[in-house]
Amino acid sequence: MIEIREITKAYDGLRAVDEVSMTIKSGEIVAVVGTSGSGKTTLLRMINRLVEPTSGAILIDGRDNRDLPGHELRRAIGYAIQGYGLFPHRTVAENIATVPKLLGWDRKRIDARVDELLALFHLEPAQFRARMPHELSGGQQQRIGVARALAAEPAVLLMDEPFGALDPIIRGKAQDDLIDIQRRFATTIVLVTHGIEEAIRLGDRIAVMDKGKLLQFATPAEIIAHPATDFVAELVGSDERAFRMLSLTPVSDLMEPGEAPGAPIDASASLKDALSEALWSGRRALPVLRDGAIVGRVTRDSLISRAGRPQ
Amino acid sequence: MNMGVLLRLALLLLLVAFLANPQAFEPLFAPFAANGAAAIYTQSSLLSLTVSHLSMVAAATIAATVVSVGLAILVTRPSGREFLPLSRSVANIGQTFPPVAVLALAVPVFGFGPIPTLIALFLYGLLPIFENALTGLASIPPSVQEAARGVGMTDTQRLLRVELPLALPIILTGIRLTAVISLSTATIGSTVAAKTLGEVIIAGLISNNTAFVLQGGLLVALLALFIHEGFGLLEGALTRRTRSVQPA
Predict the structure, then answer these.
(1) A81, B147: Cβ pair inside 8 Å?
(2) Which among B142, B152, B242 has CB closest to A89?
(3) Closest approach of B150 to chain A, Cα-based (Å)
């Protein structure tokens, strides 16, 4: 659990982060979203003390993050950034092993951990261990960057626009991988992004920041349905909100018994995908597929009624 | 193996052979010797002069490297940033001061011998290394710096494990410049009784013996060539390994 208590960072009197308080639960993904200059990166960097706050405190699992020297604190917190910051003079394995090495793990344990992480990120260990960063594609560099951040099994992972430089298809894949890994290790993730799309897709809760202030901190559904301020409403975008709402729920939630013609849709697909498919193929209902068997159907009318503002 | 490598190898063999047995090359230099004077310099052994010349250059270059890199590290730390202009001036003055003037000023204090030459070479060698070390340390990508802090390296660990290794190829370029410049500059040390290859050239100039001037000059030129090449190979190998990450 990360408790942020009235944290403020001022540069020459200007408040980059202005009395922000929020509590991040263990094992959740919190997406901090805002425009550039909103203070979201400064807030993130105060958690691992790359930036020291002007006032306020941050408690991680009940302990003030100033109890330890900064470098020791940072070894216990994963940190992945835009541009990845891989060490160009070190191999992929050495990059991933950075924090375990700083912590003094023995050789065998480090090697095993490196191979485990490479496999987890779908990179064949024998093939990638000895490569240099400049020999990797952008998507591979990104994965090595996250693998390095996770190497010492941190309970908290901080990410600053980690997918910003990826093309849309690879980004989607990387986001799925991140969700998988988060479910697996129950890592608490604080992720900074300027894209509300990414925040809605990844965040269990979303923190919206503007001009150093925390405007709203709530679930994606709440943010879309009841934006706290005009700025939040604008960020969510009024023309897209019906579809954003649908994108939050899987088809299985609206499934009903019955049959429908045509190609089925997977139960784990979002309602947005289902509605899109129903409109595109001109069908009033779609069969729903789960584990290879048709288990019911979802109707276009129910999809449309779900797209409206929640009461 | 291409022509360039063969040529360098041949030159290297020639250099070694000449130093091992200068007299064997007597017929080559004889046409340049004036009215039957000796064609090969024999007052001191050419080998011992070469060794002494190289040691002096090495000592001055190492000292200049230690001081320049140390200064460059100091002024790129947050606490030392204010010393940047001062360090720049010191290195610049070292470069603008002609080595001959340094010799003239140092001799009355330290007397004849190798010390004035070492001082001149040291001062003259500061600037290229300092400027290159500064460039190298300043050109480390911000994302790499940020990551080095983010993973929890201490300041010293960041310097030793990330900054210096990444700046090394550029620092080496500076050391190479200094070494090559010192190699030629060291010849004037012989005017104040430092044992360098300049002795051969000066003897040739005094006695009007072109053969001496040629062999002294050629030796220095070849040595400079090989030092240049050697550093070049080292830098190339390092740069290939550390080529910067190209973000997608």
Answers:
(1) yes
(2) B242
(3) 6
Angle of helix B210-242 versus helix B198-206 axis, rounded to 10: 150
> What are the pLDDT tens digits along chain B (248 aa)?
678 888 888 988 989 988 888 888 888 888 888 777 788 888 888 999 999 999 999 999 999 999 999 999 999 998 888 888 888 888 788 778 888 888 888 888 888 989 999 999 999 899 999 999 999 998 899 999 999 999 999 999 999 999 999 999 999 999 999 999 999 999 998 888 889 999 999 999 998 889 999 999 999 999 999 999 999 888 888 877 665 433 33
On whether any CB of chain A is under 8 Å from the CB of B143, the answer is: yes
Min Cα separation A306/chain B (Å): 39
Residue B164: which of B58, B76, B92 has the closest Cα? B76
**Amino acid sitting at position B190:** S
DSSP code string of A65-89? TTSS-HHHHHHTEEEEETT----TT
In chain B, the residue whose alpha carbon lies closest to the alpha carbon of A137 is B248
Interface predicted TM-score (ipTM): 0.83
Tokens of B241: 């390994």
- State the smallest CA–CA distance between residue A68 and chain B in angstroms: 12
Domains in chain B: boundaries: 44-245
Considering the domain delimited by B44-245, tell me its CATH architecture.
Orthogonal Bundle (1.10)
Residue A291: both structure tokens together: 């584990």
Q: Which residue of A has its CA nearest to B162?
A: A87
Nearest chain B residue to A134, by CA: B245
Element (H, E) at B107: helix B99-110
